[in-house]
Each structure stands twice: as C-alpha cells, then as structure tokens.
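Hey, resending since the last one bounced:
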Amino acid sequence: MSERVLSFLSRGDVLTAGSALAAFLVLSWILRGAAPGRSLAGEPEGDAPLASRRDRMVFGVALGLVLILIVAGVAATQGVPWALPIFGMGFLMVVSLTRMNRRYRHESPTLRRTIDVSDAFLDISLLAGILIVLNVLAFRYGGTPLDLTREGTYSLTPESVARVRALDRPVTFTILSGASPIAEQHKSRVVQLLDAYKSINPEKIRIASLNPYEDLSRIEDLARRVPELGLLRGGGVLIEYGEDKETAPIIVRTQEMFDEPSRRQRRVADYFESNFKGEDAITSALDRLRRGKGVKIAFTVGHGEPKPDDMSGNGLGTWRTRLARVGYEISEIKLDQPAVASEEEPAVVIVAGPRDPFRPEEVARLRERVDRGKPVLLLLGNEHPSGLDSLLKAYNVEIGPGIVIDPRSNYGGIVENVLVPSQSGPGHPISSAMSPDRSILVPHSAPIRILGTTGAPGRPPEPIDRTLVPTPILQAGRNAWAESDLKNPRPTYDPDADGPRGPVLGVAIAKRPEPEPRPGSPIEEEPRLVLFSCPYMALDSLQDQFPANLDLLMNAASWLRGGKGDTLGLSPRTHVALTLMIDPQLRSRLILVPTLTAAMVIIAVGLIVYTSRRE
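The structure tokens again:
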C-alpha cells in the first residue's frame, strides 16, 4: 500500500498540482495577512468591502498569480499553444479583480497590499515576457551573436563560415568522449565549436554525443562502417556527410584539436596556456568531404611488386578495395619520376614485396619523404634485395639473416608458415586494437633487429637516433627462431647462429620531439614508418583464411596517417589563464574582509531604514 502511495505521489502531474496548491496557500496567506480560515483583526470597517468580499478578492488574485506562475512549466513541457490560454486566464483574473477593488485600496490594508503585490507581479511578468520574446527573436533572426571573449571562443573565421554555408548535404557530428574530467573539458570546448557551426547552417548540421565506454552497441555498429574507430584513443569527432552512407566518414581525433601543455605551463603552476586547433581540423575535414577527396595512399610500382589491382590471388586487390571502401584515394607511384605538387602528394606510401632493388636516387627520395613526416609502410623480406637497408638503419632497424620458423605454431605443418597472435608485441595502437584471439600468418618472414640492442652474441649494439623510437607490434613466440640452415630437414635451435628466440616480425617507428619532455609528461609522437618482415602477408590468397592479416595492415595504414589530412592552416585559438598564487593567510584575508564588510554595510543600511521609519 505504501509503495502505491509513494508511486502516486512521485508522479509529475501530482507534484505539479501539489506545488500549485502550496503556492496558492502561501500567496493567500501573504496577501490576506492571515492563514486561510482565520479571521483578520485590525481591518477598519468604514467604506471597505465586507470580509467575505475581501477574501474572495484575495483568493481570486492568488489563483490568477498561480496560473501565471505555472505558465513557464506548461510551455516547457506541453508547448507554447497550451500555455497561452492559461496565461490569459490568470492575467485577466488578476487585472479585473484589482481594477474592481482599486477604489478601496485606501480603506483596506488587505486590498492595498493585494493590489500593490499584483501590480508588481504583473509588471515583472510582462517585463520577463518581453525579454524572453526579444531573446527568441534575436536568436532566431538576429544573425551571429556577438563574441566578446578575448580568444574569440564563439566566432568562426570567414573560411569556415563560407564552407559551412556551402554544405549541400546533411552533416552529422558525433562527439566521441568519455566521462573523465579532462574529457569533459575537451568535450565542452568541442560542443561550443560545433554549436557555432550549427548556428550558421542549422538545417544541414546535426550534433550527437556518444560515450565509447558505455554505448557499446552503437560503437559496434559504427565500427563496422568506420574501422578507424578501433584505433581511436582519447576521443574525437566522427563526421558523416550525407545520408546515403556511401561517402566514407572522417574521424577528427582529440589530439588533432588540442595541443599538449606548453613548456612554460609545466614549469609555472600559475600559468595555463592551451591552443585549440579544432576549427582548422574540422573545417578541413568538411572541405575534404564536400570535395569528395579522401586521404591519398600510393603503392610503389616498378620493382616487381604485386599489382594493387590484381584480384587473381597473387595481387593486392583485396587490400586496395578495403582501403578505397573506407575513404582512401588509391594510386600508384614511381619514385624515379618527377615529384608531384604538394596537394597531390600521397599521405602514405606502401612498399609491398619488391623483387628488384630500389636505386639510390629512389631511396633518397623515399627517405626525404619520411623525414618530412610523410610516412611509409614497408613489407620486406630478405629473399630478394630491396636496396632499402640504408633507410632502415637510419630509422634504427634492420632486417637480419635467416627465415623465421616455428615448429609448434605454424599453418599446415610447414614451419616457415609462422602463426603469430595479433597482440604479441608489448602494446601499440596498431596491435592493441586487434582481438587477442586472432592469429596473423607471416610465411617466409625474416627477423627484425632493433638497433641499440644486442643481436647475436658478441655483436655490439649499433649507434641509434634516440629521437626515433621503434616499438615491436608483431613478435613470434618463444618456440620460434631465425633458422640459418634452410637445407636442414630437421632444424634445431642454435643460439650462436640463429639469434635470440621470439624474433620481432613487425615494428612501428615514431619520432619524438626534441628535446624530450620531462618524465611523466605526455609525449606527442609522429608516425614515421611501419615495417613488416613478411613480403607475402598482404596477398589476396591469404586474406580469405586469415582476415586478421588485412585488419592489421589497415590499422598500420591508419596509424601512419595519424588522422593528419590536408588542413587549411587556420590559426589556433590560444587561451591563457592566470592563477593568483598567494599564501593561505592572505587568501583568508581576501575572503573574510570583503565578506564581513558587505555584511556590516547591509546591517547598517537596515538600521538606518528602520530608524527613519520609526521617526
């Protein structure tokens, strides 16, 4: 029984009715000067109306004021058309009653109090209504609001305004953000920016929000169409152009919109400076979507590589199709031809299984690209010379001798067909996005040695560039090694000739800023190179039985791209916040002195008013 009563009392309409009744009783008490049902003493007889008439007038005015008070709630829940009759009824009731009894205001204190309160209430409600109407008209027809912030938080550049107005198809922004304090701060700034976009073209722009850690079903649906979501770390904005689902969406990562804390901020506790590059990143993404041009990826040709458009089983047609389906523009590049314009230059170059070596001038051009931040994805072995040894050594890696075999974890009983778990490295975005129960087939692969570490016994470490950090992303198990004697029908492990067990088969190389930040500070790494020591892992003949191979390669291409497409170069918004650093005693004085002074002034003014009225 008690549960039913509580359920009934918690209903919205019951709470509204109860609040209205309480407001009516309180207003009646205030206007009448006594609780309803009790007689009012001290009211002069004279020409004043009878007590029953005064009470009816007070109760009628109180009811009218309550009707005016509940108009805002009705308008918010049921709509403005439902609120207008209630407002008109309450307003006419109050006006008519005060007008009929205005001539008695000098004879009756109750009527005088009721009329004065009613007049003040009506004046305030009319003023509030006028201000609300003016604000609605200003927001709807007043154009862009004024932005008085120092850094222009609510303003867009003319380039962004022109591109947003030129949108010819609906655009959906989905904010992908967690619930941590930093994520909430980033989300708040992104919402402000997207609201500014929507104010320019509200009919074409829709904004949604999604928590990747809670809305798992929606994330899975999006991940089927946008594989890059598997690599997303730290949130971002998913931009979908059009409703036909044919145009591949673009993800703008949080790291692309916010700069890391400056050096001065790390040193000085009272200084906080942040650069927000969200407008440049999102406007550039909108421009690419509207032009229908995605990030360019090019396969090298001319060195016996498998053809990207070959679907016979010995080509890379499946990989090319997958790249095109998620929005990449695929092309072929010959490094011995003149360089193309910067806007036509591919963002990532893929070298997949060359049989003929690259010439020195081609290697120099490829290295120049990588040094400029245009990364490369390499699928190389040691069966055929590639001519890229100098490039690999410049980036702290090299391909060692021998063929990696695994007598236990292999495919078809062939020890050269090594099976490796997808999450076999120490942890990297490329491999950590993979499911841990999947396997990668790497047939006839070679060992990768990271320079600066000891390889074969007695071999000293090679000198390295410490700004380039290689991270293993694919590593064979403890039962695998690089066999040097390929003619031995029953190979056995020889530590002197075969190197260490569990050789590295894939490595990702990123460039760290120089000089390196202090320990514990976030590091912004720039992708430079990914190397897999198996030239055959991308062939179409492997993809049907081992689709994880293709997923790993897609993750590698996405990580190399790093979300850094062509941008417009809009200036970031710099926000500087200064914190007053004072000792606790001075802080207490700054708080207590103004507080006590204000309280004393209020008390003094009250005493002055009381004394004046007494006199």
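Residues 296-401+445-478+504-561 form a domain with the Rossmann fold fold (CATH 3.40.50).

Sorry for the duplicate.
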